[in-house]
Amino acid sequence: MANLKDIRNRIKSVTSIQQVTKAMKMVAAAKMRRAQENMEQARPYTHRLSKMLDSLILEVDRNMLPELQARETVKRKLFVVVTADRGMAAAFNTNVTKVAQKAIDEFGKDNADLICIGKKGISFFKNRNYNIVTDYLGFWNGLNYQHAIDMGKNIITRFVDGEVDQVQVIYNKFINVGKQEVQNETFLPLAYEPSEDAAPVASDRIFEPSKDDVVKALVPRYLNTKVWQYLLESFAAEQAARMVAMENATTNAQDMIKDLKLQFNKARQTAITTEMLEIVSGAEALS
User: Fold this and answer.
1) What is the pLDDT of residues 220-259, one digit of tens each?
2) What's the average model confidence in pLDDT over 140-152?
């Protein structure tokens, strides 16, 4: 059994860790509230754009925009993997990298290009010699719409120029504070199926300047908005995962402190009992 000094030092160390995890939980909670508000404000806009395109895109010539043209054979894919720059968020980063690695390996590692958003994804795939063509890191704390525009431009250009035949985006979607789901979505080419709640286009509706021009104006905006939504979802999910992880760590630290205090009391009682026995034995020997 450890001596009293060792147990006392362990209690002090665990208490210090508990204070750190509690502070990190509070910071993550504050960031999550802001991130969740931004994400929930962006969702209706993205959904509305999607519904508008659902009602228009099936009635236009898909050859007018390269973003709408599906390739006959998919020889090369671009995988956009969205992770965090930091850890201590339970399985948040691991879940994304596992799904991404499986999807890439199934398609063929040599035929896949990667754009890694977040330091954890960069480290994971770089150490395993995957073909990372672009990476983004160090922007999460100052996340804004311009980041989505820059990333979207890079992704779209690679598809339009024929460098890749399809683009997949893998990220964590925010469901609620305690749940995040990894999504693997086809970003390009755009393929729409009319949803059940999509309102049909009125036959007497007049488009100015024309329906084709409206679609041409909506598609770039929609793609940038989708990238923005991916970033917002991932950032909110990261903060939620970190908050829950730090809360669990704080609770575990409290349980550990209780166990250590019990060990300390047992060890101290054992030492006292031993000393009393030695005193009694010494007194009997003298008598």
Assistant:
1) 899 999 999 999 999 999 999 999 999 999 999 999 999 9
2) 93
- Report the candidate in 183, 19, 139, 21 with the shortest Cα–Cα distance to residue 89: 21
Which are the contacts of 206, defined by CB distance < 8 A and separation ≥ 6? none
- If asked whether residues 277 and 164 sit together in one domain, one would say no
3-state DSSP assignment of residue 139: coil
Domain containing residue 136: CATH number: 3.40.1380.10
Structure tokens at 191: 């393929």
Same domain, residue pair 127 and 140: yes
CA gap 144, 42 in Å, rounded: 12
Residue with tokens 């009635």: 59
Dihedral of the alpha carbons of 264, 268, 273, 275, in degrees to the nearest 10: 150
278 and 164 in one domain? Answer: no
Q: How many Å apart are CA 14 and CA 250, to the nearest integer?
A: 10
**Gap between the Cα atoms of 110 and 30, Å rounded:** 42
Query: How many structural domains is the chain composed of?
Result: 2
